[in-house]
Amino acid sequence: MEKDESRKYALVLGIIPWVAYVVISPAFNKPEPLILGMPPLMFWNTLWLILTSICLYGAYKLELGGGLLE
Amino acid sequence: MSSAALPVAIIIGWVLLSLAVGVYAGIKRKFTLEGYLVSGRSLGLIFLYVLMAGEIYSAYAFLGTGGWAYSYGMPIMYAIGYGALAYAFGYFYAKYVWKVGKYFKCVTQADYFHVRYNSRTLAALVALIGIVFNVPYLQLQLQGLGYIVNVGSLNTISIKAGIVIGMVIMMIYVYTSGLRGISWTNLLQATLMFIVAWAILFAVPFKQFGGVGAMFKALAQAKPGHLILHPPLGMAWYVSTLILCGLGFFMYPQMYPSIYSARDLKTLKKNYTLLPIYSIFMIPVILAGFTIAAMGLKLAAPDEAVLKAVEVSYPSWVLGIVGAGGFAAAASTASAIILTLAGLLSKNLYTIIKPTASDKELVLASRISVILFGVTAMLLALFAPGRLVALLLLAYSGITQMFPAAVLGLFWKRMNKYSAGAGIIAGLITVTYLKFGLKHNPLGIHFGLWGLLVNFIVTVIVAYATKPDENFEKFRLAFA
After folding, report:
1. Which of A61, B29, B31, B426 could lock onto B458 through a cystine, CB 3.0 to 4.6 A?
2. Which has the closest alpha carbon to B259: B48, B26, B404?
3. B246 with A18: Cβ contact below 8 A
4. Contact at 8 Å (CB) between B394 and B432?
5. Do the chains contact at B272 and A15, CB–CB below 8 Å?
6. What is the mean pLDDT of residues B83-100?
7. Is the pLDDT of residue B155 over 70?
8. Residue in B363, B374, B378 with CA at minimum distance from that of residue B178
9. Are A39 and B217 a contacting pair at CB < 8 A?
10. What residues are paired with B1 via a beta bridge?
11. Domains in chain B, ordered, with CATH?
């Protein structure tokens, strides 16, 4: 992949967690249903800790492949 | 044998182990300033990861987070969210900081501003802001440490004794071993914090209610408001706090030496992909706080929630492990802050009085500063608890005001020392006024974010009203 392209897609992956928390998580602000025992907002915010790691790992792989980490 | 013997032995044993590891890490080394403050830019993934995890999550990740869950409920979710946002931002931002650090041999946050804006005065301003807002934070860590060790030792070790022991131990290993000592001891501390959260706190809702779902059903009965965001900690507050804290996180001065200390870019970036996983340890802490609320227990102070949860769920010796965990959480954060402030004082303020100071002299100045900040924080924690609370309330908002200067300066040639300085000062005035003059958040939006808005506007206006920075091309060589 081109350097510029990997940089661009890596950045998109980095913005996804911001969208998940700042834009989407407010929609989960209700008392039920309990998901895995947790209120919706707590479930969403916890899930996205894991998904954030995955997004950033994707960005890392892209940048590595684009030779951006030398 | 009294029932307190085992918990006390656990705490003392852990503290002495930390001391031994911390001192061993550096006792036989001759440190250059770079070796002392940023471990010679040599840390691999594991030491970098535990350095940052230990440093970021403090005693208040236990006391404050659990306390918020207990007293307010769902608004605490901001703390889960902003860490992930900060790491997603830092994943990209830290690369620039690291490259600047390597190219220009920076060892402090103020160095970064110094090389970008070619201004000793601006660097001194940045150093002062870092010191002023972090000393009360340091004091708070010590108070938290004293309190947890006191409860953990079943009141055998007094709060004041805990503060003194904790601080003296930290001063010794930071003095001898610098950042290397902190990264070694943080391997112990970050592991223990993780164990306390997952092996001890996670079981609390199961022991009390038989499960997480059952606990929340009980909470919905006892405190229905706890399951949702509600004013004054409502939606506008939640979203604006997420943004403020997500952006402001990397303006804390202790972030810079840890970034510089990474061995290479791959290590640094891999570290940020893994940090969100570590922060899941706050979930058991929050669950413990919720459990106390669901049980309908009344506490004298919300910060007691997590310790109360352990007390009602376990035999008393387990409190000893939590007490050691309290030392772990406080020491891993406070030691990094002390070293950071010492670096700012010696490298960016002392050199104003003595520009010709040699590298060796600056190592000594840093070590003396470690003692200076350590003793200051200790005396404040012992004799003036709560005295600096006003600074603490402003800390995050105040520190965040460095954001436009730090980030716009990377890409925008028009940014110069005047726009950077004017923005920071305008932001600081705004947050101080909103917090202590107006005393509420306009439109429910966090006052720090209003400060950032004013800061940004002033920065841009001054940048267009003054000449572009001649130093910019030279600065950009770091990325060539």
Report:
1. B426
2. B48
3. yes
4. yes
5. no
6. 96
7. yes
8. B363
9. no
10. none
11. 5-387 (1.20.1730.10), 401-480 (no CATH)
User: What are B103-112's pLDDT values in tens digits?
Assistant: 999 999 999 9
Contacts of B277 in chain A (CB under 8 A): 49-50, 53
Q: Residue holding tokens 């470690």?
A: B370
CA B477 – CA B247 distance, rounded (Å): 26
Percent of chain B whose pLDDT exceeds 90: 87
B106 vs A: CB within 8 A? no
Helix (H) or strand (E) holding B223: none
Residue A53, pLDDT score: 97
CA neighbours within 13 Å on the CB side: how many for B459?
28
Provide the pLDDT for residue B251: 95
Question: What is the C-alpha to C-alpha distance for residues B81 and B100, in angstroms, rounded to an integer?
Answer: 29
**Interface predicted TM-score (ipTM) of this complex, two decimals:** 0.96
Please judge whether B277 and A29 are an interchain contact, meaning their C-beta atoms are less than 8 angstroms apart: no
Q: Determine phi and psi for B368, rounding to 5 degrees.
A: -65, -40
Contact: B276, A15; criterion CB under 8 Å: no
| 3-state SS class at B419 | helix
In chain B, residues with a C-beta closer than 8 Å to the C-beta of A28 are none
DSSP B72: T
Contacts of A3 in chain B (CB under 8 A): none
Amino acid identity, position B72: Y
- Residue whose C-alpha is closest to residue B227's, from A40, A48, A37, A27: A40
Q: Which residues of B touch A22 (CB under 8 A)?
A: 85, 239, 242-243, 246
* Tally: H helices and E strands in chain A: 2, 0
Q: Mean pLDDT throughout B89-93? A: 96
Binning pLDDT at 50, 70 and 90, where does residue B437 land? Answer: confident
Torsion of CA B350, B355, B361, B364, to 10 degrees: 10
What mean pLDDT do residues B280-293 have?
95
What is the pLDDT, as a whole number, of residue A1? Answer: 59
Alpha helices in B153-203 (DSSP H): 159-195
Task: State how far the Cα of B48 lies from the Cα of B56, in Å rounded to an integer.
Answer: 12
Region of B63 (left: φ > 0; alpha: ψ -120 to 50; beta: rest) is alpha
Say yes or no: B283 contacts chain A, CB-CB below 8 A.
Answer: yes
The string of pLDDT tens digits covering residues B235-268 is 999 999 999 999 999 999 999 999 999 999 999 9
Taking each helix axis from N to C end, the angle separating B45-56 and B318-343, rounded to the nearest 10 degrees, works out to 100
